Each structure stands twice: as structure tokens, then as C-alpha cells.
Amino acid sequence: MARLIVGVTGGIGSGKSAVMERFQARGIEAVDADDMARVVVEPGRPALAEIAGHFGNEILTAEGTLDRPALRDIIFSDPGAKQWLESLLHPLINKELRERLSRADSPYALLVSPLLFETGQDALVDRTLVLDVPEEVQLARASRRDGATPEKIRAIMAAQLTREERLARAEDVLDNEGDWPQLDLEIDRLHAKYLALANG
Ligand code: ADP
Is the pTM for the entire model greater than 0.85? Predict the structure, then answer.
């Protein structure tokens, strides 16, 4: 079992996936909160039936899976619906995260989540690492990756903590404004630090 759990967060395009891959390449296990958010609504899971019961079968595809765009449309225009959905899913996601983290077998493990602080998932971790980039870099990298307009990326950023709010809550900060070699140096620095903490 991992002796230290580090919660990794940052806004869209800050480098969470890139950072997660680099820690994994160093033998560190990582659980992605976005993946778990998909797992808890898979067909056969009780949450999917509850969601269909609440919103109607329109939110199911012909194959019986969750129609995410349809659900997104509903909650986008209805804050009450969003709140209902979150109070159903957040405890299920946290349970899944807790179980998978407890099975992690590296000296320390990562919980990677875009909404670590927003959803209270920081309660599941021993320390927090915030990936920090200026907003222009976030916009440029995320819109290039997704082929999305800056407006679309801005709308997602608006639902997340601001850079300042996130930094204020960080225990460790990874500056990811630089190039790939600079990122690797940052990962090496943090990996050494977390190994020392886990072994300390
Ligand atoms: P997130 O998971 O936080 O949304 P990603 O890890 O997908 O962010 O990174 C966003 C984009 O920026 C990806 O296309 C990624 O390859 C690129 N990227 C991340 N870090 C760097 C870096 N240090 N230098 C150059 N490109 C980067």
C-alpha cells in the first residue's frame, strides 16, 4: 500500500495528463478522477438507473449507455439538476477513488483530478500538488489539443477555481510554463521529494 497519497490538480490544459504519464513512467501508480467519473455510470452500475429514473430515458443512448451530451445540456441550464447529479455521483466517485488508491502498490500514489478542491477530494490525499501555468498558456495548449475555440476553453475555466485560488491552497507547485525538458526536471525534483516523504 502506498505510504503517501499526493493529489494533483490544475485547470484545463495545465498538464495533468502529461504529468501523470511522467510519474507513471517512474513506477508511480495514479488514479484519474475523470476515469472514475465514467466508471461509476457504466451500464449495470446503480447510478445509471438512478439517473435515468430522475431525468428519463432520454439521457440513455440506444445502446443503454449514458448520453453525456444530453445530460450535459440538461445540467448546463438547470443548477438544481446539476446539484442533484453531483450529490449522487461525488460520494460514488470518492468511494471508487478510495478503493483504488488503497490498492496502489508504489511507495506513493497520485490522485489526479481537475476538481480536487472543488469537490472536496483533497480530503482523500496527504498533500496537494498544483500544476501552474499562466492563463494564456492554458488557453493555447488546451485549444490546440482539443481543436476547440478559446471561448469554449474559457467557459470550462470559468467553472474551475482561478489560478490564484488554486495556488493559495497548494502545498507543492509545479511550474509547467516551460518546455518538455523543463517539465521532466520538475518531475524529477518532486519524485525525489515524495520518495523521501514516503520513506521518511
Ligand atoms: P490537462 O490534462 O491538465 O488538461 P494535458 O496534460 O492534456 O493537460 O496538457 C495540455 C496540452 O499541453 C497537451 O497537448 C500537452 O501535450 C501539452 N503540454 C503539457 N505540458 C507541456 C509542456 N511542458 N510543454 C509543451 N506542451 C505541453
Answer: yes
